[in-house]
Amino acid sequence: MVSLMLPRLVDVSAASRRSASVTERNVAALRSVYWLLLVSGFVEPLLYLLSIGVGVGALIGDLTLPGGTVVSYAAFVAPAMLASSAMTGALAETTFNFFGKMKYMKLYDGVIATPVQPFEIALGELAWAMLRGSAYSAAFLVVMVAMDLTAPARALAAFPAAVLVGFAFGALGMAISTFMRSWQDFDLMSSAQFVLFLFSGTFVPAEAYPAVLRWLVEVTPLYRAVHLIRTLTVDTGGWSWLLDVLYLLVVLTIGLLIASRRMSQLLYK
Amino acid sequence: MAPPLIQARGLVKRFGDFTAVDGIDVEVGAGEAFGFLGPNGAGKSSTMRMVGCTSPPTGGELRILGMDPVRDGPAIRARLGVCPQLDNLDPELTVRENLTTYARYFGISRRVARARAVELLDFVQLSDRADSKVEPLSGGMKRRLTIARALVNEPEIVLLDEPTTGLDPQARHLVWERLFRLKQQGVTLVLTTHYMDEAEQLCDRLVVMDGGRIVAEGSPRALIEQHATREVVELRFAAESQEAFAGKLNALGERVEVLPDRVLVYVPDGDAAVAEVAALGLNPTNVLVRRSSLEDVFLHLTGRTLVD
């Protein structure tokens, strides 16, 4: 039994070691200019929270969530901003940066000449995207607690959820990037991302939409992400968040499989 | 005899309808310096990529270090060093980081990676640029860095795809000298090149590829002896037609080739031939004696010679 299992275990440890080397490369490449980009990714959702959550929220008043909890509009918007910043942070890495590295820098052409395989590159890049996404999420949760928009214990529970959101979107973005032909294609993706950002129950509860539209909204990934994080940070809505977790795990798995499969096709010419 | 490190039988690579490599047989032994020569599109790079285990063969058999490149890719690549045709250095890292980061892809510890980077930068004479970014480096420096990077895992086989194309003479000679040292250390070298002089400098044995096939095989000396002469005399005459002079030159060399602007005479000894040209009373406006090149071998191999 041991002899049967051992090669497999060795494989897994070698694979994760190789994935880690890809992540490590990104740490080495981190430069001062890049820090500015990182900061902007944190500031953006914060500005939305202050302008719309707090600003527009003053005109709207309180909302009643599906679970029955009554919250301020800012508390309603904040988890959605967290979810979408986790999405944006992960996507920024796995779309623009990933595409640039693969197509223009030809970075992976050099990497595949080593023992590192496409699946491990995908995993390593995703892990890096998550380091970035997680930093945004943690910072934003601190802000939420400071503004009394959620409880510290809830924030702790929401953090792994935000990481999962990032992982799922990162994998999805990476899969999509492998189909991109040029930078122009990313305009389409940015538009799609913005539509998701506006309508995923972020600023308006999905329950407010007509039935058909509501169903449509509720199957989109950002809605599930918002729902998950909102449930954990402010609502008391039963176990339906487990469905969100499952959904995001499926997106993560499929995204990663497609991404590494496509990368194999593109790199092993 | 030890089993060959690289063994290909009927190796084929197709991209859609296009056949890049059309059934080649190659064997490379340990410690050998082996060359693939040929024009662009001959299938050299496709072959190199298959040997480097980054391009699955479409057909035929390929064994590298006794293993299957598709199934055992990572294990084989761990023991190979690859210097691709186009430098794909990491532009976001410094010269030194390019080496240390690459070493990490092989699972080499940080400490060893740092030590190797120092050694290799010294080996390719880039120590003074260690902390520079890659971008401002000259073509020759980038090439040397790519070669250093290919050595970071102390490979048993180093694959070099056109290692000196586009380099100035100084840079070329430095690269040759470093590759020669590697060869002396017992590293197996496999390289592709356009240049016969490069092949002569470095290769024990080589194959000439054209249209995806191997059209000739042997040592550089044997190939030149077989398909060209040692030297070529290029003669340019003032008259409109070079053709008129060709007839008189036929006896001079093994082969005479008439081009629109000059006549090439293939001879073992160029200077002697030039003396004979003068003795014949011919007055070329321009005389050039040079070593035979791949081009000459090629013209012969592909049958484009006009006068034989």
Automatic annotation (TrEMBL), chain A:
Subcellular location per the Swiss-Prot or TrEMBL entry: Cell membrane; Membrane
Main location: membrane
InterPro entries membership: ABC2_TM (IPR013525), ABC2_TM_bact-type (IPR047817), ABC_2_transport (IPR000412), Nod_factor_ABC_transporter (IPR051784)
Protein name: Transport permease protein
Membrane topology per record: Multi-pass membrane protein
Keyword terms: Antibiotic resistance, Cell membrane, Membrane, Transmembrane, Transmembrane helix, Transport
Family: Belongs to the ABC-2 integral membrane protein family.
Record domain ABC transmembrane type-2: where: 36-266
Protein's UniProt keywords contain Transmembrane helix: yes
Automatic annotation (TrEMBL), chain B:
Keyword vocabulary terms for this entry: Antibiotic resistance, ATP-binding, Nucleotide-binding, Transport
PROSITE patterns (UniProt xref): ABC_TRANSPORTER_1 (PS00211), ABC_TRANSPORTER_2 (PS50893)
SUPFAM superfamilies given in the database record: P-loop containing nucleoside triphosphate hydrolases
Main localisation: membrane
InterPro entries cross-referenced by the UniProt entry: AAA+_ATPase, ABC_transporter-like_ATP-bd, ABC_transporter-like_CS, ABC_transporter_ATP-binding, P-loop_NTPase
Gene3D superfamilies the UniProt entry points to: P-loop containing nucleotide triphosphate hydrolases
Topological category with respect to the lipid bilayer: Peripheral membrane protein
Pfam families in the record: ABC_tran (PF00005)
Domain ABC transporter positions: 6-236
Compartment(s): Cell membrane
Family statement: Belongs to the ABC transporter superfamily.
Protein name from the UniProt record: ABC transporter
Native organism: Micromonospora lutea
Classification lineage: Bacteria, Bacillati, Actinomycetota, Actinomycetes, Micromonosporales
